[in-house]
Design brief:
With 935 residues, the protein is of the alpha+beta class. It has five domains: 232 residues, Leucine-rich Repeat Variant (Alpha Horseshoe), CATH 1.25.10; 118 residues, Leucine-rich Repeat Variant, CATH 1.25.10; 143 residues, Alpha Horseshoe (Leucine-rich Repeat Variant); 188 residues; 126 residues, Immunoglobulins (Immunoglobulin-like). Helix content is 55%, strand content 10%. This is Integrator complex subunit 4.
Length: 935
């Protein structure tokens, strides 16, 4: 269809004329004459609408107007007037419906005044009798009202129209009238009660859609700030038995809202003289919905349970037991029963056996304080056949356990059972939920056996999630700790790629169990009290796991240091240098770690002193340039030794580096200089500006202004150098300069409290005065400003700045020929890639790229799938901007004579054809072999 449409449009735009000469030796001329393109002005369409011969033709024109919806504002008034005139004389209801729909679209998609459109719709609605047209008119009014802010007088007219339309016999009209009332009815106390009462009458309508919309409108009023009275509760609970799913869903939401808004309100228990809290009663009703026939209702009920945190503990515990506990009924004392017998005149005669037995033969279900459907509600949710219900039940159980610590211990066994679910997403949800409530629980040995059996799961995400959970939980005994360590080491031998995750798990285990680790130290290190043991391989991942756990435990229990043999002490020095993120600082070496000498206060003081010295040399160019060069190396070193200030140090170093490059390039274009600026320096400057704009987060408004100002300087300098060089087109640099100038102008308008520097103000003023911004004209306007520009002000210290970086975990750097990847030339070798990306914003996730650079300088860029980039969760369940990229890259090339390195980068695409590298490259040996001929 797309090809056909393209051919049709081409045939309409072009006409071919052939002039054939009588002399066949001459060439034929093929001239293409363009036909004039028909204007898409809305007045053109409405003018054709007046001459439409039939309703069908008018409808086709209205559809064309609806497809365009991009018109000039001066034409809109006349077009709306013509549409309304055609509405009044049109007999076909479908055309009138389309006109009203267009008026609603004008309010949402154009800048036309919504008050005028609402007036027109209300005027047309007065003389209308068709239910379809009235329904569309109400819908258009609702669309106009939510798209634009209308005067209160127009809103009042819309509400009056909606009230009058409720008397219609059409259910669609009633439904849209209720929608309009819920969205725009007054929320003042003197009139809102009447509005809620009016809407509440339609909860008993014969049509299910009207009933559902009535409940939805009441909820909309509640969302607008109306205090929904508890009197609505009986009406909502009656609707839970409705035959239609849409009504039950809205009624269930209303029950939840009433329970959470009025938790302490007391209501009577049906068929009893006892009272209970509204939140407890609502909780029971939501639990009963867990047995609904509809999967959507069950899922909604499971989600709502997690939000009812004010429920009583006895009702909460009942959701995990399928048997009703004591019927939750109040038992009468002996004196009360004797009093009833006395007042009734019934006494025992002694002639019959047990004739003085209690006479209260009551139905337990009729007097229970909680409905029997609530018994084991969460258990029913966990056992549901649909994964949506199971996932929502696990999430609600976690949310309730976070608020009620005793419930966390009770629900532990049920969450552990979900580790065996057949759906991976449900297993992950249960693992992360148990991780979040780990501070309230202590694991027993029988529970650990079920958890650890899941460690052999084929899914790497499940295994890493279990590592995170085991590191967050506490175990009760030494046997439990041994069980955890042994299982992790066994699984590590089966899945060596889980090495980093296992290190992190045992690091947290050691931090949380220092006493248990101290008792097991000789056994774990295999240290005999009398005989020297053989020195173990420090490159063995299993041995490193044990050392990581013990070193982190020794950080909290210094007496453990005396239990370490000499070989362990030597291994500590090696691991401390190679794995500083897993091995803490211990007083085992005479040389103090350099990282301990640099605290957060000292690093910040050093940074402030450095920037102060640069500011002091503002008027001395040579001294300032020397300080900038020295500051770059100092800041790079500071970023390495102090991770807390690495983002701030990298940002400042990159900003100062851009200043240094600007100074060098600016000296080349001075009036009396004839130096040729380096193209590499210019490209490096533009890349630094792109990094400042895209790789750093948590910047203040002042920081953003400095970044935009230095980007404006760089783009202006770029244009001047390109025009002077005359070796390439200056159109792209000019467009870039105009784009950055427009961006900084909008930024300054949105933030009037900050002021730009003199250079930025001069550039913006000069560009605003140019009517036709062509590269040559822009060049002559900005040249004197660029040549006389003063240095940029250095940024202030902002310790909250974070830089987006990546770290490739797999594959590792391979330099040996034994570990090379061999493949037949022309075929494909699949290489798994795992990388951690820190401080990546959510909107940048789709801009991740993987760059593969071959030895012949060919570069392939791979776009990973979004589902391959997943967020890394923390123990508390907090979502941070750290991501894990897990994908497979494909390598293929022609024949090489010998194995050569292939470089792999993780990059961030900031514009088409421009990627910023987030990490150092990983080099692997790749050897495409020639195809073997014959057998």
């Amino acid at each position: 269809m797309a090809t056909t449409a393209y051919k049709r449009s081409s045939s309409e735009l072009y006409q071919t004329i052939q002039e054939i000469s009588r002399n066949r030796a001459q060439k034929r001329l093929r001239l293409i004459v363009k036909k004039p393109i028909v204007s898409t002005s809305i007045t053109t369409f409405t003018g054709l609408l007046e001459n439409a011969g039939s309703s069908n033709e008018a409808l086709q024109l209205l559809i064309k107007i609806s497809d365009a919806l991009q018109f000039d504002e001066p034409e809109m008034g006349e077009a709306v007037r013509k549409l309304c005139e055609h509405f009044k004389k049109e007999q076909e209801s479908a055309v009138r419906v389309k006109i009203l729909a267009l008026l609603g679209d004008f309010a949402a998609d154009t800048s036309y005044d919504g008050a005028l459109l609402a007036n027109e719709v209300l005027t047309l609605l007065k003389s209308e009798s068709s239910a379809k047209v009235i329904c569309q008119a109400l819908h258009s009014l609702h669309k106009i009202g939510i798209s634009q802010s209308l005067p209160q007088s127009h809103v009042a007219k819309m509400v009056i129209t909606a009230r009058n339309s409720l008397t219609s016999q059409s259910h669609n009209v009633q439904r849209h009238a209720l929608l309009l009332l819920g969205a725009f009815a007054s929320v003042e106390e003197d009139s809102v009660e009447k509005t809620v009462e009016l809407i509440g009458r339609y909860t008993d309508s014969q049509d299910s859609r009207v009933r559902a919309q009535a409940f939805r409108s009441i909820l909309t009023l509640g969302g607008r700030g109306v205090n929904l009275a508890p009197d609505l509760y009986p009406r909502a609970t009656d609707a839970l038995r409705d035959d239609y799913e849409c009504v039950r869903k809205e009624a269930l939401q209303l029950v939840y809202e009433l329970g959470t808004r009025h938790p302490e309100h007391m209501i009577l228990v049906p068929d009893s003289d006892m009272e209970m809290r509204l939140v407890d009663a609502a909780f029971g009703k939501v639990c009963s919905a867990m047995c609904d026939l509809s999967m959507q209702v069950r899922t909604q009920a499971a989600e709502l349970l997690g939000g009812m945190t004010a429920v009583g503990s006895e009702f909460l515990n009942q959701t995990l037991d399928k048997k009703l506990m004591s019927n939750l009924r109040r038992k009468k004392s002996l004196h009360e029963r004797n009093l009833e017998n006395f007042t009734s005149g019934e006494w025992s005669s002694g002639k019959k056996w047990a004739d003085d037995a209690p006479k209260e033969f009551l139905n337990a279900a009729s007097i229970s304080l909680i409905a029997t459907g609530a018994c084991g509600a969460l258990v029913h949710g966990l056992e549901d056949e649909f994964l949506e219900v199971r996932t929502a039940s696990v999430d609600s159980m976690c949310r309730l356990a976070l608020i009620h610590p005793p419930f966390a211990s009770t629900s532990l066994d049920f969450l552990v059972d979900m580790f065996n679910d057949e759906i991976e997403s449900v297993r992950l949800k249960a693992i992360y939920s148990l991780t979040m409530i780990s501070k309230h629980i202590t694991l027993r040995e029988d529970q650990l056996e079920t958890m650890l059996s899941s460690l052999e799961d084929y899914s790497v995400e499940v295994r890493e999630g279990l590592h995170l959970m085991l590191g967050a939980c506490k175990v009760s005994t030494q046997a439990c700790l041994k069980l955890v360590v042994q299982k992790i080491l066994d699984v590590l031998s089966k899945y060596p790629q889980d090495k980093e995750s296992a290190f992190g798990c045992l690091q947290r285990v050691g931090q949380k169990h220092p006493d248990l680790c101290m008792a097991l130290t000789p056994q774990l290190l295999q240290d005999h009290p009398f005989f020297d043991s053989a020195e173990r391989d420090v490159e063995d991942p299993a041995y490193v796991c044990i050392l990581v756990m013990l070193f982190n435990a020794a950080q909290h229990r210094p007496p453990m240091l005396s239990l370490f043999p000499d070989t362990t002490v030597r291994h500590y020095g090696y691991l401390r240098d190679t794995m500083p993120n897993f091995v803490p600082h211990l007083m085992l070496r005479t040389v103090v770690d350099q990282t301990q000498l640099t605290g957060a206060t000292g690093s910040r003081q050093f940074l402030e002193t450095l920037l102060h010295n640069i500011d002091a040399a503002y008027s001395a160019p040579r001294a300032r340039q020397a300080l900038l060069e020295a500051a770059q190396s100092n800041l790079d070193r500071l970023a390495e030794i102090d991770p807390a200030l690495s983002g701030t140090a990298n940002f400042t170093a990159m900003f100062l580096g851009a200043q240094l490059l600007i100074h060098q390039l600016q000296s080349c274009i001075a009036p009396k200089q004839n130096k040729t600026p380096s193209r590499e320096s210019l490209n490096l400057l533009m890349r630094k500006c792109l990094k400042l704009q895209n790789l750093f987060s948590h910047l203040t408004k002042e920081d953003w202004l400095l970044v935009k100002q230095i980007s404006l300087r760089a783009s202006a300098l770029h244009l001047v150098i390109v025009v002077k060089d005359r070796s390439q087109s200056a159109l792209a640099p000019c467009q870039l300069l105009l784009h950055i100038a427009a961006d900084i102008s909008v930024f300054l308008q949105d933030n009037p409290d900050i002021v730009a520097d003199k250079f930025t103000g001069s550039i913006l003023q000069s560009l605003a005065a140019i009517s036709d911004p062509k590269p040559g004209r822009v060049f002559w306007e900005i040249l004197p400003i660029v040549q006389s520009a003063t240095p940029v002000v250095t940024p202030r210290v902002n310790v909250d700045i974070r830089m987006c970086t990546a770290r490739i975990l797999e594959p590792c750097n391979v330099s040996s020929v034994e570990n090379q990847i061999k493949v037949t030339a022309g075929l494909i070798a699949a290489v798994p890639l795992v990388a951690d990306i820190e401080n990546l914003q959510d909107y940048q996730r789709q801009d991740l790229r993987i760059r593969i650079k071959y030895p012949d300088q060919n570069i392939h860029t791979v776009v990973p799938r979004l589902r391959d980039v997943k967020r890394i969760l923390t123990e508390s369940g907090e979502e941070v901007n750290n991501w894990r990229l897990r994908t497979t890259i494909l390598l293929s090339h022609g024949v090489w004579t010998e194995a050569t390195h292939v470089e792999i980068f993780v990059c961030l695409s900031v514009r088409p054809g421009t990627e910023l590298e987030l990490c150092k490259s990983v080099k692997i040996m790749f050897a495409p072999k020639p195809v073997k001929r014959g057998i």
